[in-house]
UniProtKB/TrEMBL annotation:
EC number, UniProt record: 3.2.2.23, 4.2.99.18
Taxonomic path: Bacteria, Bacillati, Actinomycetota, Actinomycetes, Micrococcales
Family: Belongs to the FPG family.
A Pfam family this chain is assigned to: H2TH
Annotated Formamidopyrimidine-DNA glycosylase catalytic domain residues: 2-117
Protein name: Formamidopyrimidine-DNA glycosylase
Gene Ontology terms for molecular function: 8-oxo-7,8-dihydroguanine DNA N-glycosylase activity; class I DNA-(apurinic or apyrimidinic site) endonuclease activity; damaged DNA binding; zinc ion binding
GO biological process: base-excision repair
InterPro entries on file: FPG_cat, FPG_N, H2TH_FPG, Ribosomal_uS13-like_H2TH, Znf_DNA_glyclase/AP_lyase
Residue ranges occupied by any FPG-type domain in the UniProt entry: 237-271
SMART domains, A to Z: Fapy_DNA_glyco, H2TH
Amino acid sequence: MPESPEVQALVEDLGTRLAGREITDVDVVEFRAAKTRTRPPSSLRGERVSGATRHGKHVDLAVGDAQHLVVSLGRHGWARYANGETDESVADAPPTLVVLAFDDGTVVELTDAGDWVSLGCFVVDDPKDVPAVSKLGPDPADPGFTREDFDRVVAGRRKQVKAVLQEQESIAGVGNAYSDEILHLAKVSPVAHAAALTEGELDRLFEATVGTVRGAIERQRGVPIDQLKAAKVASMRVHGRAGETCPACGDTVLDFSFASTTAQYCPTCQTGGEHLPLRAAE
């Protein structure tokens, strides 16, 4: 799942390449990707892109005088540049759902690798016209994000802290991978309820949230967009590393079941040695 550091790198790359460029063609290959049916992406033909920004995990291309193409990347959505040959000749390459062509020959393909269509495109006057954007909580990548902002959405919540970190209405941009990294760095159990955290644990969790997100953004900045996923995987300390050695204490990183997916943690660093449950394979 794309998270804020990778999406930030993507929008910076798109902004550099596309600012000032005219959209010459739009091909919606998968009609379900167009979420504003009365204003389809094809309505943007002939308009120029003025810039790109990020809202949580959403890409926002400012187009024309006052329009926005907001792309919700969903669980498996992404973008790639076409260079005459599509990657669909490569085994396991994700299918293209929407194609945007520009006056300098640049072609951007919006892709989705999931079993269902999770990527969505919205043409709106204001990004907040997209329901998921309007509901976003504060973003830890924002220089103005404070401990007060953090406490307001985390402290006292009667909900597992990992779930709170991934709840976009609470904290924008964090998903399964970076929440694992944040909790490991903070030495907090992913299944602890936020309301049960001590002041010291909240201190560590705030610092880990800000440090992890901003540090990842700095690392990902400038990485080619087709290499961002690999760069993200390579940077993980515990996420996706079950069976490997914890870099902090030397214990073995373990899997545990969380919602409809699997996450990772270190029992020594985070749960006082307790092993969290992993549902049996079906």
